[in-house]
Design a protein that fits this description.
The complex is a heterodimer.
Chain A lengths: L1 H24 L5 H25 L5 H14 L1 H13 L3 H4 L2 H18 L6 H7 L1 H9 L17 H10 L2 H26 L2 H12 L2 H7 L5 H21 L5 H12 L6 H17 L4 H26 L18 H11 L6 H12 L16 H4 L11 H20 L10 H14 L4 H18 L1 H7 L3 H4 L5 H8 L3 H10 L5 E5 L10 E4 L15 H11 L3 E5 L8 H6 L1 H4 L2 E7 L2 E6 L1
Parallel strand pairs in A: 1-2, 1-3
Antiparallel strand pairs in A: 3-5, 4-5
Chain B lengths: L2 H22 L1 H12 L10
The chains are: A mainly alpha, B mainly alpha.
Chain lengths: 592, 47
């Protein structure tokens, strides 16, 4: 619970720091918008500070704390201004529609139970927090054979700070905060470009999407990605509609941060840039600003490509292994990786039916917990096309269509489509409020939305409630993690008993965050040094010896890479293994 | 039929189809979700 206080103090620092930067751009809006801009600028600057500290191996808590105290003193005037504004501000937007505010509050509370419990989700344990932990141990960026270590880690820089100054729960709370910030950004967008009436509804529609609610309680990065995209689009649309120059470059900064969060992040910047090209066709004097936009918005992504180039030799690892082949990552590895993430089937029929598959047939996506979108986005989708003429609607519709098309062709993972959901919510609520439907029809649509809001809550309630005993203090962290992660007890044993220079390969688990010594996991789509799929027992033993892998951790509860079972069951490998510890069907072996 | 009435009818029909299909398979979907992500981790005995 103390982590909530850390979050509040950290957020105030971010706001104050961001406020200083906002003043440089000359942006001045309402209290809520200023709060969102300040938060975005503050987080962007913080990410840069941590990136630079990591690049120069200066990740020491005392050093970063000193820098932050100095920055706070420099921004003390802004701090006082902020406090004064807080005192004067009446939070009218919270009271605009009390029922909808209560809905968001209830969802936020349920999600908070997830956020306040120790991290137990796969991607968070595998890299979102595991890599920041590695960087902290090394006091800076470090090379790891895992492909995930080379993905852009923009928001992981914030998680790094959370881990450095507190723990994993604080990192999860940062993501939970991003969920609420996204909701406020959606509200602001709808209010500014459409109507006050549609603002609260669009915010509620967004925050009650099961995917958003589930993600709010775990340490992923999608909500940060979406927040920067929405706030960046807000600035871009404001510039597009009013020609106010002070919004142009902030939009480049925010969209640039959003673009650097994921490999497919730059898609949105490319689409916005295409829009700028169209506008330049009518206004030739724009070319200078366009170039600057391109430089600013791509610079955040290039930081990560540069870091990858220095550490691994391939700026876009795990892609283009054939163009930038290295000893640890070949063209074959890149091909395997691309096969995993690329769109499964690209056809016109699937292109048209995909929204249906995404909503109704989630089994197409493996019943994963992060595939649940609820029925509203699709059920009320026709509403996005109707309403009063508005240039923003046109821009959003074209932008969403282009993003959907690019997503469909490049990768069909549900989460990677996240960026268009906030805008669909805005346009649905606008369609609902601007069309003069028969009151009966309107009531019926509102009833459908209410049913969905109530039933959607069942998913985060079921998902996050597993953390309640820990959060209310009747269960210990170890007990909670042992209940959720079968490999946790074995990892704890390994942390206490294995030599610090030991090197362990994990079969059947990527959950490396709770493992303190050197480790490796994954098949050829995730690491290119230890061959599993097409290896013989002799080759496997030879490879483990040459890599100095001293232990194997085998999670027998789940399948591992193809050929794993055969390798582990072979006489040659068996004779080399000595069982050290076993619990929950997870075994730790020493390689003799 | 006025334009608004026609639009309202189209929207309602589409929404009904989607909601119907969604909630007809909701027990299956929720059951898969619960058994994969909730029940086995739920700390208290369930009825």
């Amino acid at each position: 619970m103390i982590e909530l206080l850390y979050l509040l103090v950290g957020w105030i620092f971010v706001i104050v720091f961001g406020r200083k930067i906002r003043h440089c751009f000359g942006l001045k809006e309402s209290f809520l918008l200023n709060l969102l801009f300040d938060t975005a600028f503050g987080f962007a600057a913080l990410i840069l500070v941590v990136f630079i500290a990591s690049a120069f191996h200066l990740l020491y808590s005392w050093l970063l704390m000193t820098i932050f105290i100095i920055l706070f003193l420099v921004c003390f005037k802004e701090f006082k201004q902020f406090l004064n504004e807080c005192k004067k501000t009446k939070l009218n937007w919270l009271a605009e529609n009390k029922i909808l505010t209560i809905v968001i509050f209830v969802y936020a509370l349920v999600n908070l139970f997830g956020a306040l419990s120790p991290i137990a989700d796969t991607d968070g344990l595998g890299y979102h927090l595991a890599m920041p932990k590695l960087y902290i141990q090394n006091h800076g960026f470090a090379y790891h054979h895992l492909a995930v270590s080379n993905w852009p880690m923009t928001f992981e820089m914030l998680y790094l700070l959370a881990l450095m100054f507190k723990n994993d729960v604080l990192a999860k709370l940062v993501h939970w905060l991003f969920g609420l910030l996204c909701t406020l950004a959606v509200y602001s967008c709808a209010k500014r470009f459409f109507s006050k009436k549609s603002a609260s509804v669009s915010a509620v529609l967004f925050y009650t999407i099961p995917l958003v609610a589930l993600e709010s309680g775990i340490a992923y990065i999608d909500l940060g990605w979406v927040f920067f995209a929405v706030i960046g689009m807000y600035c871009f649309l404001e510039w597009h509609v009013t020609d106010k120059k002070e919004f142009f470059f902030p939009s480049a900064v925010f969209l640039g941060v959003s673009a650097s969060a994921k490999w497919n992040g730059p898609l949105l910047v490319v689409i916005v840039f295409l829009g700028l090209l169209v506008r330049m066709y009518h206004d030739k004097s724009l070319w200078k600003n366009m170039l600057l936009f391109l430089v600013i918005s791509s610079s955040f992504s290039f930081l990560w490509y540069g870091k990858n180039l220095v550490l691994s030799g391939n700026p876009v690892l795990p892609f283009l292994g054939s163009v930038f082949p290295t000893d640890n990552w070949s063209a074959d590895n890149s091909a395997s990786y691309s096969e995993v993430v690329s769109g499964k089937e690209v056809s016109l029929k699937r292109f048209i039916l995909m929204p249906w598959y995404l909503t109704i047939s989630t089994k197409h996506f493996g019943f994963g917990e992060l595939t649940f979108l609820g029925p509203v986005l699709l059920g009320l989708l026709p509403l996005v096309f109707f309403g009063r003429k508005n240039p923003v609607r046109k821009v959003l519709l074209i932008g969403m269509f282009l993003f959907y098309t690019a997503w469909f062709v490049s990768s069909q993972q549900v989460r990677l489509l996240f960026l268009i959901f906030p805008f669909i919510c805005v346009l649905i609520s606008v369609g609902l409020s601007e069309n003069h439907f028969n009151p009966l029809i309107k009531k019926f649509l509102c009833a459908l939305i209410t049913i969905s809001i109530v039933l959607n809550l069942a998913l985060p309630l079921a998902y996050h409630s597993k953390g309640i005993p820990f959060v209310i203090g009747i269960e210990s962290k170890d007990s909670y993690l042992s209940r959720l992660l079968p490999e946790f007890a074995v990892m704890q044993w390994a942390n206490q008993n294995l030599a610090k220079d030991s090197y362990t390969y994990f079969f059947g688990t990527p959950h490396s965050f709770y493992f303190d010594n050197q480790y490796l996991w994954g098949c050829k789509d995730m690491q290119g040094v230890l061959k599993i799929e097409d290896s013989t027992p002799q080759q496997f033993i030879k490879d483990t010896n040459s890599l100095k892998i001293s232990h194997l951790l085998v999670n027998k509860n789940v399948d591992s890479c193809p050929n794993s079972k055969e390798l582990l069951a072979s006489k040659e490998v068996k004779s080399k293994l000595k069982e050290l510890f076993e619990k929950n069907n997870v075994v730790l072996y020493e390689i003799k | 039929m006025s334009k608004n009435k026609l639009l309202g009818t189209v929207v309602i029909l589409f929404a009904i189809i989607v909601f119907l299909f969604y909630y007809l398979q909701y027990p299956l979907l929720f059951d898969a979700f619960i058994s994969n992500y909730a029940v086995k981790y739920f700390p208290f005995p369930l009825p």
